[in-house]
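Repro:
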Amino acid sequence: MYRTTLLSVAVSAGLLAAAAVHAQEHKAPSMTPDMQAQMEAYHKAGTPGIEHAKLASMAGTYDLTVKSWYAPGAPPSTDQGTATRRWNNASSSPAITAAMTPACRHASPCLTGAPSQNGR
């Protein structure tokens, strides 16, 4: 048992040392002017623009009325709640997220809402 453990430790240490030497020998090449131009174009394309400003304007708290119909001609089931939309301007993926209270209980409810008048 002691020999197996010692052998495992020795092999692991050897592999780690070999990987470290290999990493030092093979550094990534510097970017060519063409690669640099492509990278700048990529960053320019990923910069938030007019569309992101439109999404950001939808952030806020809204009062909701959720109506769900379970059969043709049947009256709808109605629930009240609030939705909070937050703008996430993370540079990697700007997005707007929404949370509803109470959570929707049905697979595809019809949501109608208006901006909250109570300052929430």
